[in-house]
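Consider the following assembly input.
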Amino acid sequence: MSRNPLVREVPPTSWFFRHPRYMRYMAREITCIFIGAYCVLLVVGLQRLAAGPAAWEGFLLGLRSADSIVFHLLALVAAFYHAATWFNATQKAMPLQIGEDFVPGNLISGAHYAVWVVLSLVVLFLAGVF
Amino acid sequence: MSNSPPRSQPPLAAPHGGAAASLGRPGGSSERIVQLEVLRYNPDTDTEAHFQRYEVVCQEEWVVLDALNKVKADIDPTLNYRWSCHMAVCGSCGMMINGEPKLSCHAFLRDYEGVIRVEPLAHFPVERDLVTAPDDFMEKLKRVKPYLIPKEEKPISAGEYKQTPAQLMKFRQYSMCINCMLCYAACPEYGLTPGFIGPAALTLAHRYNQDSRDGGRAERQEVVATHEGVWECTFVGACSEVCPAHVDPASALQQMKITSSIDWIVEHLIPGGKSARDTASREDAGDIS
Amino acid sequence: MAKSHKPVVWFPFAAGGTVIAFCIPVIVVLTFLAALGHVPAGLSYEKMHAFAASGLGKLIIFGVVSLSLWSSAHRLRCTCYDFGLRADTLAATILYVAAITGSLAAAVFLLRI
C-alpha cells in the first residue's frame, strides 16, 4: 500500500484561538508587555530621582494623568496574573519528595502565596501606606 | 479505569467479536441518536479531507469509540480508525473530539451535546480517516533512550538491583505513560515546531533519569539539552491537562530545564567543572544498589 | 546536535519571573496610589533618595529592575514566535539588547544617587 499522508498545517498566527487553554497561555505571556513597559517607567523614575527633588516631584505629578491611571490598571492586572500563574507553576517546577510521598502541590504553591502576601504587606508598611 | 460505571456491551465487544449481537439489551439503558461529524480522508483519491455526518443510534452510556464501531458495523464499513483495548490502557484510540485530544474509549457520550466532531489527532499526518502516522513520535522516542541503562553492570549471580519504595515513587508517575500521543496533539509548540522532541518522549527520558538504578542521564542529555529538547518547551501546560494516564509532562520538562541549566553552569562557569556525564554518575552515588 | 546554550538566557528569565511575581505587584500598587494622588509617604524624595543611596537599596532596586526587564524581554521573544513572527534571532537580539540597555541605564542612574 502506498502512503500519501495528509499534513494539516497549524495556522502560525491564529492557532491560539483553537482552545481556551491556549488563550489563557497567551494571556499569561502577554503580561510581559505591560510588565516590561512598567519596568521602563521605573528606569525613568530612577533617572528623575537622580536628577533631584524637583525632577522627582515632577515625575510623581506626571503619574497623575488618565493615561497613567489606565496604564497602571493594566499593569496591575498583568502583575497579579503573572504572580498567580507563576506561583501555581512552582509545584510543577519544584516538586518536593519527603520520604516516600511528595508534598501536596497546593502546599508548595500556597507557601509561595503566603510569602508573597507577607512580603507585600511589609513593603506597603515600610512605604508608609498604613 | 477507576471511575467507569457499568455499561451495556458496545457493538463490538472485541476486535473480532460478534457485531450487534449484544445491542438493545432489554430493560437496559435508554437509546439516543447521536450526530457524529467525522473527518474523512482517502489517500488514494483525496487531496483534501472532508467531514462526513453520521446519525447513530447509541446507548446513553456508550463512549465515542462505541459509536464509531456502530458506524463501521452498520452504516459505513469504509471508516478507518485505530483501537484495541477499549479501556484506556493501550493508547491507540486517541482522536480530537470537539477539538480536545481524547481517548475515544474514554470520551463518554453523556458528556456531549449536539453534533460530536471527531478528527484525527492534531499535529500528526493523516494516513486515512482517523488514522494518523506516528512515525515522528516513534523516532523521537527511540532517540531519548527510554530504557534502563544500568549504572553498573553486574552478573545475575550478584542478585537483583534493589530499590526502596521512596526511590520507586520518585519516578513512578512518569512510568504510567501509554504512548497515546494526546500530549503531542495538545502541544502547540510541537505543532509550530515539528522538530521538538515533545512531551511524552522527554518525560520518559526523565522517568529513567530519576530511576536510582539508571546511569544513562548523560547520554540522554545529548538529546534532552538541545534546542529541540526541553528548550523548545514554553510551558503551555496543555500536555498535562490532556494526559489520560495522569502523567505530568509539563512538570517533568520544567524539572529538566532546571537540571540542564545547572549542568550548563557546572560545565561552563565552574573551573574544572565536571561534564554532565560525570555529574550524572556522581549524583546518584550512595543510593542502595 | 549540540547541547543548547539556552540556560544563559533562561536562568535570568526564571529568576526574573520569580522577582516579578513577588515584587512587581506591590510596587505597581505604590505608584498606582501616587497616580491616584495619594502619594505614599515612602515615595517622598527624601525617603526614596535615602533608600536608593544605600548600598542595599541600590542592590535591591537594580536586581528588581534588571531581572524583571530581562524576564519580560525573554518572554516577549517567545511570544513573538507564538504570534507567528519567525525572525527569532532578530527579535531576540533587539529585545535582549533593550533589556541590557535598560539595566545599564538603571545602574548609571543609581550610581549618580
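The beta strands of chain B are 31-40, 50-59, 94-97, 100-103, 116-119, 126-128, 131-132. Ask yourself how this observation constrains the way the partners meet.
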